[in-house]
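Morning!

This is the sequence you dropped in the shared folder:
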Amino acid sequence: MSQRTVLINGTVVTGYGKLKDCGVYINERGEIGDIFNMSRFNNKHFPPDTTILDAAGGYITPGMIDSHLHGIGGFGTEDSDPHSILQMSERLADVGVSAFMPTVYTNTLDEMIRSIKAISDAMGQEKGAKILGINVEGPFISMKRIGAQNPEGVLPVDLAIFNKIIDAGEGNIICMTVAPELKGMRELALLARERGIVLLAGHTDASYENILEGMQVGILHSTHFFNAMSRLHHRDPGTVGAILIEKDMQCEIIPDGVHVHPQLVKMLLRDKPLDNIVMITDSLKPTRQRGGNLTANGVPATLGPNGAFVAKDDPDLFIGSGLTMLQGVRNVIDWEIPIEHAIQMSSTNPARIYGLSKMGMLIPGNIADILVLDKNLQMKGLFIDGNLIRDRFA
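The structure's back. Tokens below.
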């Protein structure tokens, strides 16, 4: 049971559009009971124990879903510790995230399985953002596009190892990043479909033709678009070109203004269906960390002048972002992208792509995971399952 709440005087960004001067009723089941225009508010009747909160002209949106991140606040999946995962949950709620998919780096198989088991052990104990399931980045990726992944963990396609990884998740693994060009990938992709695992093309040196072959067996999503993948060339479109050309290919995007130039994000939104673009952070353990040594997947890191994390001994190697989803939304709005598009990318699209029932949109009957922002896009409140877990209304 949750506290009945009415949010009033807001612009409701539903995930499919924007409704000005509206309110939202959260019922005792933690669901959205109604969305109404404020002109009807005085004629509506709510139970006497209902709490009324004023959005004061701000925005009422679905809670944000971060489907790809490794850590935040000095805690990360590489710690292989349920406590760290639960601390990530708390810190994500502080920045407006209602649900997330902790992402496991490519590492030695034993280390990857330790991280997977730690996330599974944490699930159900969250006090902040909900853990939706596990995102596994690798190990069947290209050494040519390895980025900051551990080269010792990169493996050729092996169906037995794939099954071992998925079995370690005890039904909690949602997706895996792979390089579509690897030998044996067709068989792995068919097995992934049988097991309900979404595959993303990433850390890949795939040709345009390799991506088309991957699409034929259901590899329709891609990891941190433009980064760690074969680039666009006028005689060889590569992975970047294939994702741009093929409208059915979905893609993650890191909107920190560094991993991808803002004008390229705007181009992507102009030329690709909005439904197929997912905002992520790819944030690392030292994101918003206060003091101490900065490391990511065991690699000493430093925060570059542009806000991205780079390897301490190789400042040209991006190893991830220090972004939060809320800052990502602010960024794209600064780039003149409408807030309703920003919210669709940060909430609605990941919910649909990963089959998250009754999430990512504000419609009656859906789960009341709701973010309230003021006019300056500062967080006023966060509801998870209808419960106000971050209250900044005062």
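Headline: The radius of gyration is 21 Å.

More detail when I'm at my desk.
O.
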